[in-house]
């Protein structure tokens, strides 16, 4: 169930350039079950910023009643969030949306997890779930440069991990697709989250041959499906009035379900 | 003692708080968060004769104490609204105000004729003020002659009272209000959004795909208050006020200005539980201010002769 | 390399940043805080033929990300402005834009004829948009025919270029802009304040003694941006933009919309050093965005053919 | 000179119901010389609240480079200010305006200091200056009720002190004027700060017979004399266009100088 809670900051730290890892505790964690869902966060106290910020859940720890997010402090809201101190409270609405279903991958098979920049975080909880299910995981994670790379070791602990950077300052120079192109084709399922051009490239290359699941981003109002801010056309009616809402039908869709 | 019940044409409200059109869909999603029975009424999303997808995304942008939206009247169309959306709301003991829109007078008439027959639709809200569609919408809302015409046409077919939603993007809001009153409007709802815009620093292009959008939220509250103050003194029909309401105090300010009920829009995004919270806080605040009933607040800013049985503030 | 110098009719600006009229008096007080020579220009407080006390207090109220003011054009009158205020500004190498106001066309003409003879007055700003006075002011600014007439009358006597300050409280801002352009305006300044209001919780009465006031500050920025975007595509005279500018980023956004220079009003109250700060930050920001000169930003939102010699953003 | 400085919070505490005492340190203190001047404070970081809040200086400590204010947390801005924590910084513009001139009172004579509610704080620095100059001080301080009384002991340490409360829950029941009416008429000068009705009462009763100085309050924009938000008519031209600005000509005026 979707709940609204003032959750306590257990820890917040900058883990890469402008990239923060934030762990919150509260009863809302008991509602979190699926990797790839997100929360909608009020980053300030007054009317500015007025809108909440959607941030993916990157790890769920039911035992300690905590969950973790990783986000980039970029604009006004995420900057404010990054200034929040331990033991203060953050207003969280969630969990929201439909995430990844790890169960579509079968034990013993291999899944490819592809993340770009701040699309990487939700893949972490997903990868943990997949390995627990006995699925073999390969991670291909793309970043701008060495300074913004995060979670490399954490992903490596779960499976094979390739890093790309646009400027080549760490890992392979180029985009995630440059690595995927030369990977052995052993995986059956692809899970991806990142910039739309990346998702489009994966969709067009692998939609026919693999099971592909993509997590989308869109500017949001309500985050719960009521305001129609975040809609996209469905693939079978690309110029008509059929639609899906990224916030409540997604953010994860099967490749080919919606128009990217 | 009920301090909040309000009677308006067609509307028997347990309290004067209702979600504003377009900020609450058809109630389904918020119905998962709390019991909709507590609401005074629900203003549902605009309905047009045919289904509409609306504008391309991005459809929202943030501004200081406000937001811009350019949804573009996305809705499943009259048939689906009548078949799926409105019946689902039947389970709640809450009057529905159906927001209707279109590209031409006939569209308004078509939707009004049909939708006003639905049993839980207790009033229509004529949206002649949407700034985010190319045809219809705001063009009807900025010319008093056209506004009066569409009001008359809708009144002729509607089986329930008709409230006309005014646009703030006009030189003379009183003239617009009087025109629709003359056209037979049973009430007014105001204000819709102010036309605004934002550009992306890096690209230099508008953030909204539709370029311009409608500004809502606390930023516009002083404009809404001023317009309601002016209009409420110049017409004899009640006003449902809206524009930046976030708190119970804001509600009282709208009543002082001249509103008889209020709608809450953007605030539902900041805090999805804002309507129940306001409904709970209002009686406490009214008592603190020395009122026995919220209706005592209406028009207090200009009504020198208003009697306040028990006013201690 | 100077990245900020701008030439406009009558105005040779070292940079396009100037304090907005009414928010900087006649420069005396801010002159105690920093060296006024760094400013692009100064828009001084409105001058009327006779001295005016203005409205009763309270004259300001706060709103979300904005403020309301109802100063009511208080000023020492034409004679004193020419004798005391303008000469004091002679010590600075900064063009003065004299904001002129009145109750009737003759008032504008009187002030324009005299004040345009003062040597450091390089341009006039015709205030036909003040919402806070009973006569004149905004009435001139909401009717295109009247606006054109007063523009023509002032142009006939002014010895310096005339900029007309537009009111946002109109249905059709483009029509107003085109009317004053046809009347001979050399440039536009926009926007003046939006009419707004607030009530006191306890008394139910308006907070401002004048009841209504003009809304300024970041709250109105999206409206200002939208209007400048519309007008800049429809006229051939330059626009000095204003309305909620607080930062260097805001300045760029106004340029993208179509402004050729900007004025900073309310922000001077939040941070009295805001103008020097913005002037210092602009070149850094421009470089970061890949521009060689701020003029490259003007109208970038709509000008598909704008050439940006060195754009890397 | 007027300066703008991010000043550090040395201490902040609630000293009576909703009444906070806040001490800040910074180099701006070296500019503070006169009791009755005020500072203009930015109470939040964003654009909300947009305007600064005028608060009187209630004590100046040049040795420690600190000054103290006492304010009531009432609306949005002062509430935010009251939440600020030690060691964080507050944006202060000041010192502003023309305060009280203790030197008008002569050593050995008696001065009457009259304060109402949040008009009491500036009298504290004034009283210290007066006693240092050898002036005898009598304080009459009015409050709503016992819970909102503050600084009683501090004033008592400097001179004779009478407290009034509207509800009679502490000191004399009634208004400050009720006490003044029965005081021996030994004082030559009156310094007052408080609600306008109180100032009016003092002006009309004592303008002719005593030296009376009143500190006014008005809603402000700039606080430095540039915006004309805070003007009042002068007494010799009560309906004309002569004016004084409370922020830069005042806030302290000689009784009879301006229209209250
Ligand atoms: C389902 C979902 C999950 C996300 N998960 C993460 C995550 O795990 N880590 C992370 O760093 N970021 C994530 N994002 C992106 C994140 O929401 C934006 O970076 C953030 O909203 C920007 O806010 P700001 O205050 O920095 O920027 P501002 O410029 O102040 O934002 C202004 C407005 O635009 C919206 N906005 C700006 N950029 C985006 C964007 N890229 N996507 C959606 N809305 C945007 C904001 O929400 C706000 O309403 C996610 C987005 C979505 C939709
Ligand atoms: C020269 C001067 C000295 C002052 N000294 C003190 C002091 O030492 N201690 C203290 O507690 N208060 C003092 N005040 C009053 C104090 O400024 C207001 O209580 C405060 O501004 C209210 O802000 P808020 O955020 O609580 O209220 P809000 O309601 O959020 O204020 C909204 C707006 O109204 C203005 N405003 C509201 N009430 C007043 C008022 N009474 N006077 C002036 N502006 C007001 C605010 O500045 C703001 O712009 C002084 C006022 C002046 C003019
Ligand atoms: C996302 C969004 C969608 C809206 N859709 C509609 C609509 O379909 N019909 C309508 O009459 N008004 C619509 N409005 C306007 C609101 O009903 C309301 O008049 C306006 O937002 C001002 O109130 P607020 O500041 O409380 O949001 C919409 C507003 C928003 C923010
Ligand atoms: C206190 C105050 C006084 C003003 N006085 C004048 C004036 O005398 N003449 C004028 O043309 N505009 C006046 N304005 C309007 C400003 O010049 C400006 O157009 C408006 O405030 C929008 O800009 P801002 O949001 O940066 O303040 C005044 C504004 C304020 C806040
Ligand atoms: S954000 Fe409101 S419907 Fe998705
Ligand atoms: S507050 Fe601006 S002149 Fe006094």
UniProtKB/TrEMBL annotation, chains A, D:
Superkingdom of origin: Bacteria
Key words, A-Z: 2Fe-2S, Electron transport, FAD, Flavoprotein, Iron, Iron-sulfur, Metal-binding, Pyrimidine biosynthesis, Transport
InterPro entries given in the database record: Cyt_c3_hydrogenase_gsu (IPR012165), Dihydroorotate_DH_ele_sf (IPR037117), Dihydroorotate_DH_Fe-S-bd (IPR019480), Dihydroorotate_DHASE_ETsu (IPR023455), FAD-bd_FR_type (IPR017927), FNR_nucleotide-bd (IPR039261), OxRdtase_FAD/NAD-bd (IPR001433), PyrK_electron_transfer (IPR050353)
Stated family: Belongs to the PyrK family.
Classification via Pfam families: DHODB_Fe-S_bind, NAD_binding_1
Pathway named in the protein's UniProt entry: Pyrimidine metabolism; UMP biosynthesis via de novo pathway; orotate from (S)-dihydroorotate (NAD(+) route): step 1/1
Ribonucleoprotein listed as a keyword: no
Domain FAD-binding FR-type: residue ranges: 2-102
Binding site for FAD: 53-56, 70-72, 77-78
Function summary: Responsible for channeling the electrons from the oxidation of dihydroorotate from the FMN redox center in the PyrD type B subunit to the ultimate electron acceptor NAD(+).
Protein name: Dihydroorotate dehydrogenase B (NAD(+)), electron transfer subunit
Subunit structure: Heterotetramer of 2 PyrK and 2 PyrD type B subunits.
TrEMBL record, chains B, C:
CDD domains the record matches: DHOD_1B_like
Annotated catalytic residues: 130
Record-linked PROSITE patterns: DHODEHASE_1 (PS00911), DHODEHASE_2 (PS00912)
Chief site of localization: cytoplasm
Cofactor binding remark: Binds 1 FMN per subunit.
Cofactor(s) the record lists: FMN
Binding positions (substrate): 45, 69-73, 127, 192-193
Domain Dihydroorotate dehydrogenase catalytic residue range list: 3-285
Subcellular location(s) per record: Cytoplasm
UniProt xrefs under InterPro entries: Aldolase_TIM, DHO_dehydrogenase, DHOD_1B, Dihydroorotate_DH_1, Dihydroorotate_DH_1_2, Dihydroorotate_DH_cat, Dihydroorotate_DH_CS, Dihydroorotate_DH_I
Residues reported to bind FMN: 21, 45-46, 99, 127, 165, 191, 217, 243-244, 265-266
Function: Catalyzes the conversion of dihydroorotate to orotate with NAD(+) as electron acceptor.
Subunit-structure text: Heterotetramer of 2 PyrK and 2 PyrD type B subunits.
Family annotation (PANTHER family): DIHYDROOROTATE DEHYDROGENASE (FUMARATE) (PTHR48109:SF1), DIHYDROOROTATE DEHYDROGENASE (QUINONE), MITOCHONDRIAL-RELATED (PTHR48109)
Protein name according to UniProt: Dihydroorotate dehydrogenase
Protein species of origin: Peribacillus huizhouensis
Gene: pyrD
């Amino acid at each position: 169930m979707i709940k609204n809670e003032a959750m306590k900051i257990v820890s917040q730290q900058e883990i890469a350039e402008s990239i923060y890892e934030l762990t919150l505790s509260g009863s809302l964690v008991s509602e979190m079950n699926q990797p790839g869902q997100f929360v909608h966060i009020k980053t300030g106290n007054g009317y500015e910023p007025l809108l909440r910020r959607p941030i993916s859940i990157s790890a769920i720890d039911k035992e300690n009643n905590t969950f973790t997010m990783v986000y980039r402090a970029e604009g006004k809201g995420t900057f404010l969030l990054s200034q929040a101190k331990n033991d203060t409270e953050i207003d969280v609405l969630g969990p929201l949306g439909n995430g990844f279903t790890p169960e579509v991958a079968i034990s013993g098979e291999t899944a490819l997890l592809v993340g770009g920049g701040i699309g990487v975080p939700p893949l972490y909880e997903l990868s943990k779930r997949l390995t627990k299910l006995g699925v073999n995981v390969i991670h291909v994670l793309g970043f701008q440069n060495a300074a913004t790379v995060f979670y490399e070791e954490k992903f490596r602990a779960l499976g094979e991990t390739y890093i790309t950077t646009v400027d080549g300052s760490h890992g392979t120079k180029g985009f995630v697709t440059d690595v995927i192109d030369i990977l052995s084709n052993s995986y059956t399922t692809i899970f991806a989250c990142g910039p739309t051009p990346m998702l489009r490239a994966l969709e067009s290359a692998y939609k026919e041959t693999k099971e592909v699941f993509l997590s989308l981003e869109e500017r949001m109002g309500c985050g719960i499906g009521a305001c129609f801010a975040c809609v996209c056309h469905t693939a079978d009616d690309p110029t008509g009035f059929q639609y899906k809402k990224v916030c409540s039908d997604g953010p994860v869709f099967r490749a080919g379900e919606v128009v990217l | 003692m009920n301090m909040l019940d309000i009677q308006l044409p067609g509307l028997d409200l347990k309290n004067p708080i209702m979600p504003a059109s377009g900020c609450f869909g058809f109630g389904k999603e918020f119905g998962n968060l709390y019991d909709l029975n507590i609401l005074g009424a629900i203003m549902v999303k605009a309905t047009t004769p045919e289904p509409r997808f609306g504008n391309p995304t991005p459809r929202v942008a943030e501004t200081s104490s406000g937001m811009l939206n350019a949804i573009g009247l996305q809705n499943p169309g009259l048939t689906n609204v009548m078949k799926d959306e409105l019946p689902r709301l039947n389970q709640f003991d809450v009057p529905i105000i159906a927001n209707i829109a279109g590209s031409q007078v006939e569209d308004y008439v078509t939707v009004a004729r049909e939708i006003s027959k639905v049993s839980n639709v207790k009033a229509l809200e004529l949206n002649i003020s949407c700034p985010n569609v190319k045809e219809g919408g705001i063009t009807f809302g900025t010319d008093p002659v056209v506004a009066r015409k569409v009001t008359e046409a809708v009144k002729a077919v509607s089986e329930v009272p008709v409230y006309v939603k005014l646009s703030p993007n006009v030189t003379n809001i009183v003239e617009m209000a009087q025109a629709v009153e003359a056209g037979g409007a049973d009430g007014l709802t105001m204000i819709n959004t102010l036309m605004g815009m934002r550009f992306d620093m890096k690209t230099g292009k508008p953030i909204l795909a539709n370029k311009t959008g409608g500004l809502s939220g606390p930023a516009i509250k002083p404009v809404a208050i001023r317009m309601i103050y002016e209009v409420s003194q110049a017409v004899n029909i009640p006003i449902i006020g809206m524009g930046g309401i976030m708190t119970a105090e804001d509600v009282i300010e709208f009543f002082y200005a001249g509103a008889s009920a209020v709608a809450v829009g953007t605030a539902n995004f900041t805090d999805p539980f804002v309507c129940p919270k306001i409904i709970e806080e209002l009686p406490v605040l009214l008592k603190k201010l020395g009122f026995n009933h919220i209706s005592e607040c209406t028009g207090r800013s200009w009504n020198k002769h208003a009697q306040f049985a028990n006013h201690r503030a």
